[in-house]
Amino acid sequence: MKENATIPMRRRTLLAAAAAPLLVPRAASAQAWPSRPITIVVPYAPGGGSDAAVRAVGPFMERVLGQPIVVENRAGAGTSIGSAYVAQARPDGYTLLAGATPLAVNPALQPQLPPKEPMKDLAPIGPMYRSIFVLHVHNSVPVNSLAEFIAFARANPRAMTYGSAGVGALNHLAMELLGYRAGVQLEHVPYRGTGPALIDLRAGRIKSMFTSLLEGGPLMEERITRPLAVSSLTRMSQLPQVPAVAETLEGFDVTFWQGLFAPAGTPEPIIARLAEALRAGTTDAALTKRYADAGTPLLVGGPAEQAKLLADDTAVWARVARETNLRLD
User: Fold this and answer.
1) DSSP character for 158?
2) Cβ atoms within 10 Å, residue 95
3) What is the pLDDT of residue 28?
């Protein structure tokens, strides 16, 4: 006779009941999610457009999910500090990343930085917004067009300083690509985010910068800086008088996007709820108008749309790396 055959029927029933929670399907456990606050890691310093966008959509996500959204800034190393932190986090839906274009750029230009395979290490949730950069210069710089900007930089090597959100940030790479295509040397001054760089641009401690209209608009409105060009292939409707860089340097096209990601392995039901919560913000009429008016349209979509953005830009920047031999050490 087998040993467990001697256990009374009532005792065997109680033992089976005690073990039952261990057999609950994984998907069922997601039904109780979330039960505590959710952290969104922004890999930039406070005060920039990426930080502001997360704080703008956060309240809409809170209403859908019924839990607070906590924004945590982890800036540095071309966004890899914050991105790697989330990629290595527990895949339970409580630690998310406001990931952006550098996820597509770093594998080509800074392959030593983690996460080395963002498309495998992170699970896309949905896109948040896209922005076009405006190249604007401090009023102390005696130039009024991109052609004059290039001529001034050629005549004064390294005198044209420019700020960025950090080494490897897209506004850094946009200026590096412009300098490469124009054949001029520009002096990079990296910051831990767009906000601190704008403070120095306002004061004239740096001379130029690529920013979104949302970020740099106040300086232009106050006539502290003046716009010279936009980074997309065509002009912006908000600045119709400002030419595209592509009108001087054919084919130049650099735009920034930001979306929401979770660690790879996060259960699909949780990803779906997060995507639903994100869409509540990106489809809100008032918020949509506010961002559209600032030249930074909100994007609507889910995991598939965000995955396509990442895959497409990864291919673009791999080609740029091959053609220009640009590397960031």
Assistant:
1) T
2) 21
3) 39
Where are the extended beta strands (E) located within 139-203?
161-164, 187-190
Question: What residues does each domain of the chain span?
Answer: 38-129+257-324, 132-247
Q: What is the reported pLDDT for 3?
A: 43
Residues of the chain where predicted confidence (pLDDT) is lower than 70:
1-31, 329
| Cα separation, 176 vs 187, whole angstroms | 10
CB 211 within 8 A of CB 293: no
Q: What is the dihedral of CA 311, 313, 318, 324, to 10 degrees?
A: 170
CATH topology match: 38-129+257-324 vs 132-247: yes
259 sits in which H/E element: strand 255-263
pLDDT at position 15? 41
Among residues 171, 204, 207, the alpha carbon closest in space to that of 50 is found at 171
**Distance in angstroms (rounded) separating the CA atoms of residues 327 and 137:** 26
Q: Three-class SS of residue 294?
A: coil
pLDDT value of position 98: 98
pLDDT at 329: 61
CB 211 within 8 A of CB 136: yes
Task: Confirm if 207 and 140 have CB atoms less than 8 A apart.
Answer: yes
CATH of the domain spanning 132-247? 3.40.190.10
Spatial distance between the Cα atoms of 275 and 260, rounded to a whole number of angstroms: 8
For 38-129+257-324, the fitting CATH number among 3.10.180.10, 3.50.50.60, 3.40.190.150, 3.40.50.1010 is 3.40.190.150
Closest CA to 126 of 98, 102, 104: 98
Write down the pLDDT at residue 324.
79
Give the 3-state secondary structure percentages of the chain, helix then strand then coil, rounded to 5. 45, 20, 35
Q: What SS3 state is found at 236?
A: coil
d(CA 169, CA 159): 21
